[in-house]
Amino acid sequence: MIRYWPALVSVLLSVAAIAGYTTLLRVPSIRNHPELYLVAFAVAAVIAGAATWRAARWPNFVALALSAVLLILGGYFNFVLAKIPPASSVLRVGEPAPDFTLPDASGAPVSLASFRERTPVVLVFYRGAW
Amino acid sequence: MTELGDQGVQIIAISPDPNEKSQELAQKLRARYRFLADRDLAVTRRYGLLHAHGGHKGQDVARPTTIVLDRHGIVRWLQLADSIQIRPDPTDVARAVRQLPQ
Q1: Whole domain around residue B86: which residue ranges?
Q2: Which of A84, A95, A107 sits opposite B81 (nearest CB)?
Q3: Partner-chain contact B35 A105, CB within 8 Å
Q4: Contacts of B85 in chain A (CB under 8 A)
Q5: Domain boundaries defined on chain A
Q6: What order of strands is seen across the sheet that includes strand B65-69?
Q7: Which residues of A touch B61 (CB under 8 A)?
Q8: pLDDT tens digits, one per residue of A30-69
Q9: pTM score, whole prediction
Q10: Is residue A40 within 8 Å of residue A14, measured between CB atoms?
């Protein structure tokens, strides 16, 4: 078993990358760098690939297959599924934000203009919790 | 984000979520947010922030965006996400707010 430590390291690295990213999702520096888990999967694949090259045994193949699948799925998610197509926002730094009126939680209408000359505003558009 | 409330800034969060749902979220986060419901995404669309079919059921959603307006309603800082994984870092937003002209 001892000779399969590179395969073991490879699998542990992949598992740690997934566990780390999901548990630290609330930490902005982790959340906003999803490429980090791809780097981990790639390193895991290189380790498993080297181990397979040296000894074509099943534990090495399993580690290689696992890291390769994770790398492909993770890459597909990051670069294809998660991408937002570019669109032309009307917002320009230095220009006024268009006014709007929307209902708040109690149903009362709130207009952006009502904050003007009173307080700065942080406007957050989010996808919704569904 | 709660520290922003202490700086005398109004945080307005806009989504197509119905109001009851947003209120639940606000209580869960104990956030000083004012949640506004843009049910038909009309404002989101007017701002050019629509992510068509971006929802997990293929429904239209908003592109995650954070905008800092000074007290005259002028855009001073802006972060448009190019991936649904990205969320604004509260530290960056707080910095942008601190740098607003008084």
Answers
A1: 2-98
A2: A84
A3: yes
A4: 31-32, 34, 78, 82
A5: 2-81
A6: B33-37, B10-15, A121-125, B65-69, B75-80
A7: 127-128
A8: 888 999 999 999 999 999 999 999 999 999 999 999 999 9
A9: 0.79
A10: yes
